[in-house]
Amino acid sequence: MHQIPVYPSNQIAGYSPQGQQNHQQRYNRHNNRRSQSGASNASSNGHSNNSSKTTNVYISGLSPDVTDESFAEMCNSYGKIISSKAIINNETNECKGFGFVMYENEEQARNAMNELNKKGFHVSFAKDSLSARLKNLQDEESTNIYISNIPLNMTNEQFLELFAPHNVISHTILKDQNGVSRGVGFAR
């Protein structure tokens, strides 16, 4: 029997913002789309992800001397904070001008937004990152597995035997247009 490396395919890198102005523009576009799409926040898999969208707040207009601690202290007066993060430039150790805070409930988040807007900050509900959106869509019951370096003459039946005694929902060996194995397969 061959030793075949197995790699889960659910490791997706997160999103990293590229500057305060562009970041704020993306959030403004997101909020415009969200307000136009109506009140439904249910995702395509039937689960609602309403709670994180309506409690996670994006705040921009922070000064460079803001720290995680001073940011949390500023936001704490508007409600109970679940988490907070001022985004800091690793090279200069200065705040990039924005941060995120998640409140315990929507009422607290909306109160913070109203009050911080009055103080001149640009505030909106935060958009889920790509990795968070993908995680919400993933099937908790199964995992996709990518397998490389499989023998070119391996059949689908032999490939399936590699996973015994586990329950395999679907599997395939990738082939070129001539039907020749590429030495790569997937199983779920």
- State the secondary-structure class: alpha+beta
Large-scale geometry: elongated
- Give the distance, in angstroms, between the N- and C-terminal Cα atoms: 21 Å
Q: How do the strands line up in the largest sheet?
A: 1-6-8-7
CATH architecture of the domain at 56-127: 2-Layer Sandwich
The parts where pLDDT drops under 50 for at least 5 residues are: 1-23, 30-51
Give the helix tally: 6
Q: CATH topology of the domain at 56-127, what is it called?
A: Alpha-Beta Plaits
CATH superfamily of the domain at 56-127: RRM (RNA recognition motif) domain
Q: Which CATH C-level class of the domain at 56-127 is it?
A: Alpha Beta
The proportion of strand residues reads 15-25%
Overall average residue pLDDT: 75
Q: Which percent bin holds the helix content?
A: 25-40%
Major sheet: size, sense and barrel closure? Answer: 4 strands, antiparallel
DSSP, total strands: 8
H and E order: EHHEHEEHEHEHEE
Rg, rounded, reads 23 Å
